[in-house]
Amino acid sequence: MSIHVIKPGLQTSIQDLGRPGQMHNGIARSGAMDPVSMQIANWLVNNPANNPVIEVTLVGPTLQFETPLTIAISGADFDLYLNGDLVFNNQSMRVNAGDLLEFDRLNSGARAYIAIAADFKLTPVLNSFSTHLSAGFGGLNGRAFMTDDQIPLSAICKVPMRKLADKNQLTFSGSYLLRCVPSVESAWFSQAEHSFFYSQQYQVTPESNRMGIRLRGTRLTQTSTRQMVSSGLLTGSIQIPQSGLPIISSVDGQTIGGYPRIANVVSADQSILGQLKANDKIRFVKVNQKQAVKIIKKKQALLTSVLAERNNDAS
Amino acid sequence: MNGLLDNEYYCEPIGCKVKSVANGDSGLTLLFDAPISEKLARAIFELADRIKHRLGDSIEEVIPAYQSLTIFYSPLSDCPEKIGAIVAEFAEIKTCPGYDENNSSAAKQEVEYRVVEIPVCYAEPYAPDLKFVAERCRLPVEQIIKLHSEKDYLVHMLGFSPGFLYLGGLNSKLFCDRKKMPDTRVPAGSVGIGGEQTGVYPQASPGGWQIIGRTPSVIFDPLADDPFIAKPLDKVRFVPISEQKFIRLSGNGL
After folding, report:
1. Which of A26, A183, A297 sits opposite B158 (nearest CB)?
2. Could you say which residues from 144 to 183 on chain B have a Cβ atom under 8 Å away from some Cβ of chain A?
3. By C-alpha distance, which of B196, B133, B191, B125 is closest to B164?
């Protein structure tokens, strides 16, 4: 029982919600770069939220199923074809042995998640199925999919069909506001430097990846000459290197860094990082800690209510 | 909440100021205003242990570094208050076992540490930058090898990439600038000098350090019961080995 990789796509890998508690060993948390879409995909096939999924990046794979399965795709909007017929994301579907799933044109977002009502027959490494791409462990042999890989499955389940209500579907416009709170070196930047940073429109560069989002725009000239004291680098940290162009740390980023951080993206907006692609537009907005807590509470409540819905179930 | 995060303490056991600053909405970083030292490293780990012990599962990550300690938690938790209380308590204790340098020599001997020997082959094929470092430091190659391998290095922390050891104690005669253009691929096990630091690349990766040798030892093995060759507060000793021994220990040559 397996899935046959006909074409691997740009960077297709197994991810779950990550590998927590290892940052003090230099091991990034990894996991789905857009954990919200990933959890929705799992919900669509009645999986636990942390079930491993297939993360698809920018150019999707072509997969052949060698056994009947229930699957669902969420996140970035690709044109999807099953045996040449158009199929849709955000709803579960049944596939048969021999069926061919093709990811075609990317319409919006950057990463899609394929959830399968089954287990991957893989071994977790340090308590997670996530692939750590740069260190080469976890997931399928510690790497992205390659042509002719077989993704082994077990414990295949028959589950009710589900569809995500239209009102709950995420859209990725290509133009985003990321809310920010202070970080360790925020005070190093002058009032003028902060004003400059928050008034800019930045663009995502093609060098962005799971380690970090690299931006281009007008350079921020830093006046502080203070000596950087290395400290724990968390996802969402916005570093300003000497080039003056921000780098936002992401799920596979280094654990101790690097450059002065002007701010951190609030927890609630970090899932957007997984949907950024080259030329997307970014603005940063400052909020305070209290507002950040309010925002994450609201977002978590919404996700919880979406994932608790059962009324679309139908067989 | 901002007020709670931006606190300052005077830390008696180290004799320095400690500042608590926000690291986003789900983390805080404690910055220790003291030079990098073994005493500071031990104090940071003692504090990290206290925080882990007291807060358990409500914290997600505790990340020690040379002069800082970062704690990562759920933005909805009350961890900042609780961490503040633990730091305030820690700041007032007079001494911690094992790191009071002013204490009697008897107290110093109580510090127990593990020495991890890492064999290093300094032969040319494995040490592409050794000659450059020797010229730069104005020392013969043999002297570079001797100075690099004659002392034990303290593991301050693991970080950056999986299993990478941040080592303290490089002889200042060996300080050498990083490369202006980082190499695109440095082989796993490469031993290098970067600025005032020395270390071993656990994985093949891009890198800008001057490479002066290579170890056949596996620095990070994610599938092993204990994936890490050393842990913080261990001491690392580089033991020079011949090319023949390198090949024997690693099972292959270049």
Report:
1. A26
2. 157-164, 166
3. B191
A208 DSSP assignment: -
DSSP structural state of residue A207: T
Q: What is the mean pLDDT of chain B?
A: 90
Nearest residue to B6 via CA among B109, B90, B80: B80
Band (pLDDT 50/70/90 cuts) for residue B46 is very high
Domain locations along chain A = 2-168, 175-304
Domain span at residue B52 reads: 2-92
Domain assignment present for residue B38? The answer is: yes
Report ipTM for this prediction.
0.94
Q: What is the pLDDT of residue A309?
A: 80
Position A302 scores a pLDDT of: 93
CB contact under 8 A, B24 and A297: no
Q: Which of residues 86-125 of B touch A (CB under 8 A)?
A: none
**Is residue A186 within 8 Å of A198, Cβ to Cβ?**
no
CATH class of the domain comprising A175-304 = mainly beta
Considering CB atoms only, which of A187, A256, A290 is closest to B159? A256
Residue with tokens 């009502």: A117
Spans of chain A below 50 pLDDT:
315
Cβ neighbours of A292 in B, within 8 Å: 25, 75
Token pair in block for residue A247: 């780098």
How far does A95 lie from chain B, in Å, by closest CA? 34
Does A267 contact B at CB distance below 8 Å? yes
Indicate whether B2 pLDDT > 50: no
B84, B129: one domain: no
pLDDT given at position A242: 86
List CB contacts (< 8 A) between B77 and chain A: none
